[in-house]
Amino acid sequence: MGLPKPTVQLLLKENRDHACAEAPEICVKVMAIAELPDMFGEFQVVAFWNNFDRKEHAALIHGDIFEKEDVPVRLHSECLTGDTLGSLRCDCRDHRGIVLYMRQEGRGIGFINKIKAYQLQDEGYDTFKANELLGFKRDERDYDLAAHMLRSLHVKSIKLMTNNPAKIKDLQLHGIRITGRIPVVVPPNKYDKFYLETKKRAGHLLDKTQPEEFLEQSEELRDNHHWEQAE
User: Fold this and answer.
1) Is 0.90 topped by the overall pTM?
2) Which residue in 74, 107, 126, 139 is the catalytic one?
3) Is 64 annotated in the active site?
4) I need a surface site. Which of 105, 118, 122, 133 has the fewest CB within 10 A?
Protein backbone atom coordinates (compact mmCIF):
# COMPACT_ATOMS: atom_id res chain seq x y z
CA MET A 1 0.00 0.00 0.00
CA GLY A 2 1.52 3.30 -1.08
CA LEU A 3 0.16 6.81 -0.96
CA PRO A 4 -3.65 6.61 -1.28
CA LYS A 5 -5.21 8.29 -4.30
CA PRO A 6 -6.73 11.15 -2.22
CA THR A 7 -3.27 11.90 -0.80
CA VAL A 8 -1.73 11.83 -4.28
CA GLN A 9 -4.35 14.28 -5.51
CA LEU A 10 -3.79 16.50 -2.46
CA LEU A 11 -0.02 16.65 -3.05
CA LEU A 12 -0.45 17.40 -6.75
CA LYS A 13 -2.99 20.16 -6.09
CA GLU A 14 -0.94 21.63 -3.24
CA ASN A 15 2.19 21.79 -5.39
CA ARG A 16 0.39 23.03 -8.50
CA ASP A 17 -0.72 26.09 -6.54
CA HIS A 18 2.56 26.49 -4.66
CA ALA A 19 4.33 29.69 -5.77
CA CYS A 20 7.34 29.60 -3.37
CA ALA A 21 6.67 33.21 -2.45
CA GLU A 22 8.63 32.99 0.82
CA ALA A 23 11.82 31.68 -0.82
CA PRO A 24 11.76 32.34 -4.58
CA GLU A 25 15.50 31.64 -4.89
CA ILE A 26 14.79 27.92 -4.46
CA CYS A 27 11.46 26.37 -5.33
CA VAL A 28 10.68 22.65 -5.48
CA LYS A 29 7.39 21.20 -6.69
CA VAL A 30 5.89 17.74 -7.03
CA MET A 31 4.98 17.43 -10.71
CA ALA A 32 3.76 13.83 -11.07
CA ILE A 33 3.24 10.66 -9.01
CA ALA A 34 2.84 7.21 -10.57
CA GLU A 35 2.93 3.52 -9.69
CA LEU A 36 6.33 1.93 -10.32
CA PRO A 37 6.53 -1.78 -9.47
CA ASP A 38 10.01 -3.25 -9.75
CA MET A 39 11.85 -6.46 -8.86
CA PHE A 40 11.95 -5.43 -5.19
CA GLY A 41 8.23 -4.74 -4.75
CA GLU A 42 5.47 -2.19 -5.19
CA PHE A 43 6.69 1.41 -5.31
CA GLN A 44 5.51 4.85 -6.35
CA VAL A 45 7.75 7.33 -8.13
CA VAL A 46 7.51 11.08 -7.60
CA ALA A 47 8.93 13.50 -10.17
CA PHE A 48 10.07 16.93 -8.95
CA TRP A 49 10.70 20.27 -10.68
CA ASN A 50 12.95 22.92 -9.21
CA ASN A 51 14.20 26.37 -10.25
CA PHE A 52 17.66 25.99 -8.67
CA ASP A 53 19.61 23.44 -10.73
CA ARG A 54 16.61 22.61 -12.99
CA LYS A 55 17.45 18.91 -12.88
CA GLU A 56 14.68 16.34 -12.62
CA HIS A 57 15.15 14.77 -9.18
CA ALA A 58 12.93 11.91 -8.01
CA ALA A 59 11.66 10.05 -4.97
CA LEU A 60 10.93 6.32 -4.88
CA ILE A 61 8.33 5.60 -2.20
CA HIS A 62 7.35 2.32 -0.55
CA GLY A 63 4.29 2.58 1.68
CA ASP A 64 2.26 5.53 2.90
CA ILE A 65 4.82 8.05 4.19
CA PHE A 66 2.45 11.05 4.33
CA GLU A 67 2.72 12.87 7.70
CA LYS A 68 4.69 9.94 9.12
CA GLU A 69 7.52 9.91 11.68
CA ASP A 70 10.81 7.96 11.53
CA VAL A 71 10.55 7.26 7.81
CA PRO A 72 13.60 5.31 6.50
CA VAL A 73 15.22 7.48 3.83
CA ARG A 74 18.11 6.80 1.49
CA LEU A 75 19.56 9.99 -0.02
CA HIS A 76 21.16 8.64 -3.18
CA SER A 77 23.15 10.66 -5.70
CA GLU A 78 22.84 9.62 -9.33
CA CYS A 79 25.52 7.07 -10.26
CA LEU A 80 25.45 5.93 -13.88
CA THR A 81 28.53 3.75 -13.40
CA GLY A 82 27.06 1.93 -10.40
CA ASP A 83 23.28 2.11 -10.91
CA THR A 84 23.25 1.20 -14.60
CA LEU A 85 26.64 -0.24 -15.53
CA GLY A 86 27.10 -2.27 -12.33
CA SER A 87 30.57 -0.87 -11.56
CA LEU A 88 32.41 -2.60 -8.72
CA ARG A 89 34.32 0.64 -8.08
CA CYS A 90 31.16 2.15 -6.55
CA ASP A 91 29.51 1.32 -3.22
CA CYS A 92 26.01 2.47 -4.21
CA ARG A 93 24.42 -0.82 -5.19
CA ASP A 94 21.25 -2.51 -3.93
CA HIS A 95 19.84 0.21 -1.65
CA ARG A 96 16.11 0.39 -1.11
CA GLY A 97 13.75 2.22 1.22
CA ILE A 98 12.27 5.60 0.47
CA VAL A 99 14.92 6.74 -1.98
CA LEU A 100 15.53 10.35 -2.96
CA TYR A 101 17.32 10.04 -6.29
CA MET A 102 19.37 13.21 -6.69
CA ARG A 103 20.87 14.15 -10.06
CA GLN A 104 24.32 14.76 -8.58
CA GLU A 105 26.62 12.38 -10.47
CA GLY A 106 30.12 12.04 -9.01
CA ARG A 107 29.37 13.91 -5.76
CA GLY A 108 28.11 16.83 -7.84
CA ILE A 109 30.85 17.13 -10.50
CA GLY A 110 29.00 15.43 -13.38
CA PHE A 111 29.63 12.28 -15.41
CA ILE A 112 32.52 13.52 -17.59
CA ASN A 113 34.45 14.87 -14.62
CA LYS A 114 33.69 11.70 -12.69
CA ILE A 115 35.41 9.63 -15.39
CA LYS A 116 38.31 12.10 -15.37
CA ALA A 117 38.51 11.50 -11.61
CA TYR A 118 38.56 7.75 -12.29
CA GLN A 119 41.53 8.33 -14.62
CA LEU A 120 43.37 10.08 -11.81
CA GLN A 121 42.46 7.29 -9.40
CA ASP A 122 43.95 4.81 -11.89
CA GLU A 123 47.19 6.78 -11.45
CA GLY A 124 47.07 6.33 -7.66
CA TYR A 125 45.18 9.36 -6.34
CA ASP A 126 42.29 8.80 -3.95
CA THR A 127 38.75 9.87 -4.81
CA PHE A 128 38.89 13.15 -2.87
CA LYS A 129 42.32 14.21 -4.12
CA ALA A 130 41.20 13.46 -7.68
CA ASN A 131 38.29 15.89 -7.31
CA GLU A 132 40.61 18.56 -5.94
CA LEU A 133 43.07 18.11 -8.82
CA LEU A 134 40.16 18.74 -11.19
CA GLY A 135 39.40 22.03 -9.42
CA PHE A 136 36.46 20.87 -7.31
CA LYS A 137 35.82 20.53 -3.62
CA ARG A 138 35.91 17.04 -2.15
CA ASP A 139 32.11 17.04 -2.26
CA GLU A 140 30.14 19.54 -4.34
CA ARG A 141 26.71 18.36 -3.19
CA ASP A 142 24.14 20.38 -1.26
CA TYR A 143 21.00 18.86 0.20
CA ASP A 144 18.70 21.89 0.34
CA LEU A 145 16.72 20.45 -2.57
CA ALA A 146 16.48 17.06 -0.84
CA ALA A 147 15.17 18.71 2.32
CA HIS A 148 12.54 20.57 0.31
CA MET A 149 11.52 17.32 -1.42
CA LEU A 150 10.95 15.66 1.94
CA ARG A 151 8.87 18.61 3.10
CA SER A 152 6.85 18.53 -0.11
CA LEU A 153 5.96 14.91 0.73
CA HIS A 154 4.96 15.91 4.30
CA VAL A 155 7.55 13.65 5.91
CA LYS A 156 7.79 14.68 9.58
CA SER A 157 11.02 12.91 10.58
CA ILE A 158 13.39 10.37 9.09
CA LYS A 159 15.89 7.65 9.85
CA LEU A 160 18.63 8.27 7.34
CA MET A 161 20.28 5.36 5.55
CA THR A 162 23.88 6.58 5.32
CA ASN A 163 27.44 6.19 6.54
CA ASN A 164 28.20 9.85 5.89
CA PRO A 165 27.85 12.26 8.88
CA ALA A 166 28.03 15.23 6.50
CA LYS A 167 24.69 14.22 4.93
CA ILE A 168 23.10 14.10 8.37
CA LYS A 169 24.44 17.49 9.40
CA ASP A 170 23.51 19.10 6.07
CA LEU A 171 19.92 17.86 6.23
CA GLN A 172 19.67 18.97 9.87
CA LEU A 173 20.87 22.44 8.91
CA HIS A 174 18.09 22.54 6.33
CA GLY A 175 15.51 21.76 9.01
CA ILE A 176 14.97 18.01 8.60
CA ARG A 177 14.43 16.14 11.86
CA ILE A 178 16.58 13.01 11.90
CA THR A 179 15.73 10.49 14.63
CA GLY A 180 18.25 7.80 13.74
CA ARG A 181 20.80 6.40 11.31
CA ILE A 182 20.55 3.11 9.42
CA PRO A 183 24.07 1.92 8.45
CA VAL A 184 24.59 1.01 4.79
CA VAL A 185 26.56 -2.23 4.82
CA VAL A 186 28.34 -2.96 1.54
CA PRO A 187 30.98 -5.72 1.70
CA PRO A 188 34.19 -4.45 0.09
CA ASN A 189 35.66 -6.00 -3.03
CA LYS A 190 39.11 -5.67 -4.58
CA TYR A 191 37.92 -2.77 -6.77
CA ASP A 192 36.35 -0.54 -4.10
CA LYS A 193 38.43 -1.49 -1.04
CA PHE A 194 40.75 1.54 -1.37
CA TYR A 195 37.72 3.77 -2.06
CA LEU A 196 36.01 2.62 1.14
CA GLU A 197 39.23 3.01 3.13
CA THR A 198 39.48 6.60 1.81
CA LYS A 199 35.91 7.28 2.91
CA LYS A 200 36.65 5.90 6.37
CA ARG A 201 39.68 8.19 6.73
CA ALA A 202 37.43 11.09 5.72
CA GLY A 203 35.05 10.34 8.59
CA HIS A 204 32.47 7.99 7.07
CA LEU A 205 30.99 5.67 9.70
CA LEU A 206 32.17 2.30 8.44
CA ASP A 207 33.10 1.21 11.98
CA LYS A 208 29.97 0.19 13.89
CA THR A 209 31.62 1.03 17.25
CA GLN A 210 31.84 4.76 16.47
CA PRO A 211 29.60 7.02 18.61
CA GLU A 212 26.76 8.93 16.96
CA GLU A 213 26.41 12.10 19.04
CA PHE A 214 25.92 14.06 15.82
CA LEU A 215 22.31 12.86 15.76
CA GLU A 216 21.52 15.23 18.62
CA GLN A 217 19.38 17.99 17.18
CA SER A 218 17.70 21.03 18.69
CA GLU A 219 13.93 21.13 18.43
CA GLU A 220 14.35 24.85 17.69
CA LEU A 221 16.21 24.14 14.45
CA ARG A 222 14.43 25.84 11.60
CA ASP A 223 15.19 26.44 7.95
CA ASN A 224 13.60 29.62 6.64
CA HIS A 225 14.23 28.56 3.04
CA HIS A 226 11.31 26.14 3.23
CA TRP A 227 7.67 27.01 3.13
CA GLU A 228 5.35 26.08 5.96
CA GLN A 229 3.02 23.16 5.41
CA ALA A 230 -0.65 23.86 6.05
CA GLU A 231 -1.98 22.26 9.22
Assistant:
1) no
2) 139
3) no
4) 122
